[in-house]
Amino acid sequence: MQKGKLVIFGGPMFAGKTTALYQWAEKLGVGTYVLVKPSVDTRDGDGVVQTHDGVKMKAVTVDTDMPRVGEKLLKKVTTIFVDELNFFGYEWLKPVVDEWLERGIEVVGAGLCYDFLRQPFGATLPMAARADKFVELFARCDGCGGEASHSYRKVSQKPQVLVGAEESYGACCGECWKIFNSKIKSPTYAKALAGRQKSK
User: Fold this and answer.
1) Under 8 Å between Cβ of 82 and 110
2) Do both 98 and 42 map to the same domain?
3) What is the pLDDT of residues 58-117, one digit of tens each?
4) Distances (CA, A) of 39 to 7, 59, 84, 96, 121
5) What burial class does residue 7 get, using C-beta atoms within 10 Å of its C-beta: 0-12 exposed, 13-18 middle, 19+ buried?
6) How many C-beta neighbours within 10 Å does residue 176 have?
7) 80 with 107: CB under 8 angstroms?
8) Are residues 192 and 93 in the same domain?
9) Which range among 11-20, 38-47, 110-119 shows the weakest confidence by mean pLDDT?
10) Of 114, 137, 160, which residue sits at a domain end?
């Protein structure tokens, strides 16, 4: 049996990662794939994944420390999509993905490469390092309007895992990240950001 291929989409918040999974799935036959999401991601409810554009997809919700799907389903599908790789621990996800690949199933994952402090986040980068194909996606910078490769947090909560969307996160370039990241502490935040926007 030919081994399945591993494809990873990575990028900051609002870069279209989940949309990329949806567009891939749209090209496949009904019943030939399954979308897996981590249980910690409660934004769209159990069994549903929604893009930032409002497109909904059915999903199988799995625990982050036991990301398995049923044997009956594995025998039916040829592709497994995994959303929010960043919420999975690599040590838990790797053996499961290896099993899927050995069965000839194509695995397509998407997730944040880095957290709001630009630190490696979850399984995305380790999976990307061993992928047959890695696609880096970009968003639009909230500060200057340029290409955004980073995420920043709009609230002052410190845990690495804080599930949220537009109310909690934004996307930015490297220079604007320095400004956004010091938003809470810096009294010159508004002035510095205005200068970045004007220079564009």
Assistant:
1) yes
2) yes
3) 999 998 888 888 888 899 999 999 999 999 999 999 999 999 999 999 999 999 999 988
4) 22, 11, 10, 16, 17
5) buried
6) 24
7) yes
8) no
9) 38-47
10) 137
- CATH code of the domain covering residue 117: 3.40.50.300
Distance CA 39, CA 61 (A): 6
**Do 47 and 35 contact (CB within 8 A), yes or no?**
no
What's this model's pTM, rounded to 2 decimal places? 0.84
Same domain, 22 and 102: yes
**How many domains does the chain fold into?**
2
Q: Please check whether residues 117 and 162 belong to one and the same domain.
A: no
pLDDT tens-place string over residues 127-158: 999 999 999 999 999 999 999 999 998 876 56
Q: What is the pLDDT of residues 170-183, one digit of tens each?
A: 999 999 998 887 75
C-alpha span between 58 and 151 (Å, rounded): 26
Same domain, 123 and 87: yes
Three-state helix/strand/coil letters over 92-123 = HHHHHHHHHHHCCCEEEEEEECECCCCCECCC
